[in-house]
Amino acid sequence: MNTINGIMLKDMLQSGANNLNNKHAEIDALNVFPVPDGDTGTNMSMTFTNGVKEVMQAGNDDLSVVAKTLSKGLLMGARGNSGVILSQIFRGFYQGIDSKQEVTAIDLAEAFMNGSRVAYKAVMRPVEGTILTVIRESSEMAQIYANENPESTPLEYLTVLCNEAKKSLDSTPELLPVLKEVGVVDSGGAGLLLVLEGFKAALEGNPIAASEETGTVQNTAAMEMENEGFGYCTEFIVRLNNESLKTFKEEKLRKSLAQLGESIVVVQDEEIVKVHVHTLTPGDALNLAQRYGEFVKLKIENMQEQHNTITQGAESPAKAPVSNEKKKYAIIAVAAGDGLKALFEEYRVDKVISGGQTMNPSTEDFVAAIRELNAEHIFILPNNSNIILAAQQAKDVLENENIHVLATKSIPQGLSACIMFNPETEIEDNLAEMEAAIAHVKTGQVTYAIKDTTFEGLAISEGDYMGIFEKDIVIATKDKLESTFRLLDKMIDGDSEIITLLVGEDVSDDEVSQVEDYIASTFDVEVDTQKGNQPVYSFIIGVE
């Protein structure tokens, strides 16, 4: 077999997607920080599955069309930095084989080399020891092999590519000291290797099949939705009955909903429970929730219809969204938790995309939000370093829109940017003021460790509460409040004036009072406490 055609490429793509999906939890576990948000494997799997789903639904066996459809599907479905980089690799891959009906080993070598080049260009400050290194080193060495062996087959080429990718991956801890200290290889590079090994298995005649057990039930449901359709965005508010008021547990409802779908948010505020879930069976979700009380509000939207509208629009991005009067400005922000959503809306944010550490929004999520708005200038506040690339990719998709992605890496940065926004001033002044505000915010977070590890000499045990100051874990103890106090000690200095305290869904009123009392008795600063109801992080702290 000296060439690959479109049908064979589709088999390779399905095998690669299955291999990545089957082992996504292993990739998630490679997270350097021991926090409950290691989602590289999930992001890459959802990204690649979206691309393959588009290929299969298109029903076209032309090689060039298959590669183009994959590229577009990856572009729109990209989640997190790893997902965006993966989409760029295969964007370059498509460019390398465009218009070809069959490809040789030499053609594949050039396509993957171009994928490496395109991926590097997509990242403003490429970091070695990551997925970028793995694709660059492996494609370079495999191209040398292909050029020296012009009669080699695609399978022989892919065997070399996989071997070189494995060597490069194993060397990533030597390039990134933090990987070496924690004792892991780069997660993005590991995910890429799974895709390539899936390709190779298909060419060997042993394609990887989808496993019945792909990690968490929630991610299995997500993958089913990606393969079978986008399902329904289901949101509702339930008022608990007297019996449920005594027995209701948020976690129990989350686990039940996880068997029906993904993107789950459950927040209780006394007798009111607010729920968000993406599911193929919204009726089942409603029946489940109705056991606890009566509905106050319901909203069900068909995401497949939304997706069709978006992807059709992406083909002609100049098409203006339907709306009445065009506003001068609109703001999009990313946040998880009803409290944070309400806070951003209070600060004049027009659209809050649900997401954050544990569920990074896709490029398509941003495109959908942008198309809902009709504004001359649109600001995007990703509020997480792992979401910035997806937001920037949405800007590239809608290149005729005036989209400004502000590199907010935390919720406090996003809130500060909103505070400095002035709808009456010109765009240049707004950008300058908002970017200056971002630069003056220090961010801290308190969360729990999901595994034993050592980070920069600090021993961390599973279940410890960690205080994270920017990118550094500065304290880890068994006591949530102790970790919060020590984190505040690290963050607040003589120049600090205002503390923003965003309270998570797991924090009691008494714990909030103790933190406020500690700040008042220890520091000369003002405190603005807000109930963010965010998951994962007990406290998010902004210091200005």
Automatic annotation (TrEMBL):
One Pfam family named in its UniProt record: FakA-like_C
Organism expressing this protein natively: Anaerorhabdus furcosa
Gene Ontology MF annotations: glycerone kinase activity
Protein name, UniProt field: DhaL domain-containing protein
InterPro entries, per database record: DegV_domain_contain, DhaL_dom, DhaL_dom_sf, FakA-like_C, FakA-like_M, YloV-like
Positions in coiled-coil regions: none
Regions that span the bilayer: none
Domain DhaL: 7-201
GO BP annotations listed: glycerol metabolic process
